[in-house]
Amino acid sequence: MSNSSPDPSRKRKGRKKKPTPRRKQQRPPPLYPAGGGLFGHPVMDHAELTTEQVLKRDIPWESYMANKLISGTCLQLLRRYDHKPESQRGPLLDEDGPSYVRVFLNILRNISKEDTVEYVLALIDEMLAVNPKRAALFYDNSLSGEDIYDPFLS
């Protein structure tokens, strides 16, 4: 029987394999557009949303508590903070900033719904945009046992 395909076990001598041309690396999708967030989360369907637009969303915090994704204390803090003007948020952060940071980090760790993740990142972005010194809240001693970077890297 004759087979027209060459025997793959036979090596050809004297022929060098051509190098494969390198492809240009594609860039990841853009983060928030100009005027968007520092902690922009890659957005598939909402590529044109700004931080302000994201913050207009209503997030079902009560549903997350009912499903044990957030605690009752977390829900109380969110009710005090969510959809409030900076004139009310600022004093809350001055009074108990590390608790709010802990809430934001826990949400980013435990909830993967895109709208909610974008919303919390926008809250953090706004908090830091108004007062960049608030970044120190992430390094408070009360958070020393927590990995503050993990939620932003996963």
TrEMBL record:
SUPFAM superfamilies: ARM repeat. GO terms for molecular function: proton-transporting ATPase activity, rotational mechanism. Residues 1-37 are annotated as: Disordered. One of its GO terms (cellular component) is vacuolar proton-transporting V-type ATPase, V1 domain. Transmembrane segments: none annotated. It comes from Oryza nivara. It holds the Pfam family V-ATPase_H_N. This is Uncharacterized protein. The lineage of its organism: Eukaryota, Viridiplantae, Streptophyta, Embryophyta, Tracheophyta. Residues 10-26 have a biased composition (Basic residues).
